[in-house]
Write a structure and sequence with these properties.
heterodimer; A: mainly alpha; 17 helices; oxidoreductase (chain A); heme binding (chain A); cytochrome-c oxidase activity (chain A)
């Protein structure tokens, strides 16, 4: 039911999700700074908070805050689409509390039990041990349960409202895929090749395919809200984007199967589709340029608009350019697992997902703090926007240089020997890059603090002035 | 394959997609503005994209299958900006027609 402020209960739940998301963003950055310092000073916190644990928490908190942001986006826009309160919102609130409790327990366990035996008890209650999805199995089941509740909320709301629009169709199918692909990561096999085969379904198909489609849905809603883009245009583009992403992205998964012991044909399949994977991202640039030109940059929400534009370009540069650079097997043979992968990961996640979440949050803030059709603008967000982008480029550039050093010295010249590894790690290209990365990491954290300040204050001063 | 050629291939791959994106950007920008200069400028990047693509094709590390794949990619990235602009314009045109019909 709508309250006096005009917010649905599910929109209030969305705000809760975003508050947790922004807090987890901070956690991600703190652990990121710790590991960047551990690259310079490896003894730092040694045996107390090891690199492996800090890296685990850096990456997992990133995945979680992005997910919290997306879920918030769904709960924010769904009642606007269906023009009614979300069905089963009480269940949604319980899922939110359960998710926070589960995340807190998992993080505490990670910090308290850093070393242990590799047995089934560990797999179920401490960690599954798989890179990026280390959460224990009980938490995995919890994640699937929470997404099932979200699926129920979405499906039941649409069913009851009898408003199955194109965007909602895509959302329903994508939520099913999100649940299905995550389950693929829960199989355990003592055969490392088989285990990795399924693990990549989560890491590639879950994060890179289903998330991209979810982002397409959310960006579509943001475009309608901040630019007034007609629904038919958004839907037409969304269908095309889904077609291109799935057309190139599903078998693009093959580029992860190059060196895990999968059959040789994956080299060809993976290479072919990976070479075409940047196509939808190039197409997105064409659309962004056209739409920005047609609307003559006229918007009622400046920060959201700029973050959406940054999303189109950031996605292309991070995922497309930095991804393709080392995706062909002839090159990947030498560059696999170097800092080039880290550079690609940082830039792609920032461009594709961080930018989207910030755009969604700014879109909601306008609705919460300003009268309808009022312009959301200010000064601080511009500094944050420029600062975060520069800092991220500053993190990525040294990582790329370090990756080049590793590829060249450790792999191509040294032939991947232990001595070659040490030579690459001690090379000035690598060592100095780590210092630069740390410096830009601090800059990123300062910009994050400014972002939090802006999110807490934007629109408020104007509202007070108007009163 | 020499160590130097690995680095060259890395740089060529980076340039290949980066210039494909810049070509798409300036092509769409030029067409939108109706500016022949920007459209022409976009072809500089298209040329750079083709050059880095053909550099990859000429690398002995790639067998015939991979050379065909790379040539296919070069043509795909050449066509996509033009094709996408056509699609985007069509979507906008159809929406405009629908809107006008509703107004009538």
């Amino acid at each position: 039911m709508k309250e006096s402020k005009g917010l649905y209960e599910s929109q209030k739940l969305a705000i809760g999700y975003w508050i947790v998301a922004i807090c987890l963003f901070g956690v991600q950055l703190i652990f990121g700074l710790i590991i960047s310092y551990q690259y310079i000073q490896p003894e730092f916190l040694h045996k107390f908070l090891n690199f492996s644990i800090c890296r685990l928490l850096h990456i997992n908190s990133m995945i979680l805050w992005l997910l919290f942001g997306f879920i918030g986006g769904i709960y924010w826009f769904l009642p606007l689409e269906t023009e009614r309160e979300v069905v089963g919102i009480f269940l949604g609130k319980i899922a939110f509390i359960v998710l926070i409790a589960a995340v807190s327990i998992v993080v505490l366990v990670f910090l308290l039990v850093q070393i242990g035996k590799g047995e089934m008890l560990t797999l179920w209650f401490i960690t599954e041990g798989r890179e990026y999805i280390e959460a224990p199995r009980w938490a995995d089941i919890g994640i699937v349960a929470v997404f099932s509740i979200i699926f129920f909320n979405v499906f039941a709301s649409i069913w009851k409202a009898k408003k199955l629009k194109g965007i909602l169709w895509v959302l329903i199918v994508d939520l099913l895929a999100i649940i299905g692909f995550y389950i693929a990561g829960m199989f355990f096999s003592p055969n490392i090749s088989v285990d990795q085969f399924w693990w990549w379904w989560v890491v590639h198909l879950w994060v890179e395919a289903t998330w991209e489609v979810l982002v397409g849905v959310l960006v579509g809603w943001v475009l309608m809200a901040v630019l007034g883009t007609p629904r038919k245009i958004v839907e037409g583009w969304l269908y095309l984007e889904v077609f291109l992403i799935f057309g190139t992205g599903i078998l693009g998964l093959g580029h992860h199967y190059f060196w895990i012991g999968a059959p040789e044909y994956w080299l060809g399949i993976g290479g072919f589709f990976s070479a075409l994977e940047p196509l939808p991202l190039v197409a997105m640039i064409v659309h962004a340029v056209y739409d920005a030109g047609v609307h003559r940059l006229k918007t009622i929400n400046k920060p959201a608009f700029f973050w959406i534009v940054a999303q189109a370009f950031g996605n292309f540069i991070g995922a497309g350019v930095w991804g393709f650079m080392h995706t062909l097997p002839q090159i990947n043979l030498y560059s696999h697992g170097t800092q080039l992968t880290a550079a690609h990961g940082h830039l792609a996640f920032f461009g594709a997902y961080v930018a989207t979440n910030l755009a969604i949050i700014y879109t909601a803030l306008q609705r919460i703090r300003l009268p309808e059709e009022s312009l959301l603008d200010g000064t601080l967000w511009k500094w944050v926007f420029i600062g975060l982008i520069l800092a991220m480029l500053g993190i990525t550039a040294p990582l790329t240089v370090a990756g080049f050093a590793q590829t060249f010295i450790e792999r191509a010249v040294g032939g991947s020997t232990w001595q070659a590894y040490i030579d690459a790690q001690l090379h000035p290209w690598f060592k100095e890059s780590m210092i630069w990365r740390m410096g830009f990491g601090i800059m990123f954290f300062v910009c994050y603090l400014l972002l939090v300040t802006d999110l807490l204050t934007i629109g408020k001063r104007k509202a007070t002035h108007q009163q | 394959m020499s160590a130097d050629s690995v680095l060259r291939m890395l740089l060529a791959s980076l340039t290949f997609v980066l210039t494909a994106g810049l070509y798409a950007f300036f092509y769409a920008f030029g067409r939108l503005k109706g500016s022949f200069f920007w459209e022409l400028f976009s072809f500089v990047f298209a040329l750079m994209m083709m050059l880095s693509g053909f550099f990859l094709v000429s690398c002995p590390a790639f067998t015939l299958f991979w050379k065909f794949l790379l040539i296919f990619s070069i043509f795909s990235y050449l066509i996509i900006p033009k094709a996408m602009l056509w699609v985007v314009k069509k979507i906008h045109q159809r929406e405009e027609e629908g809107r006008l019909k509703t107004l009538k």
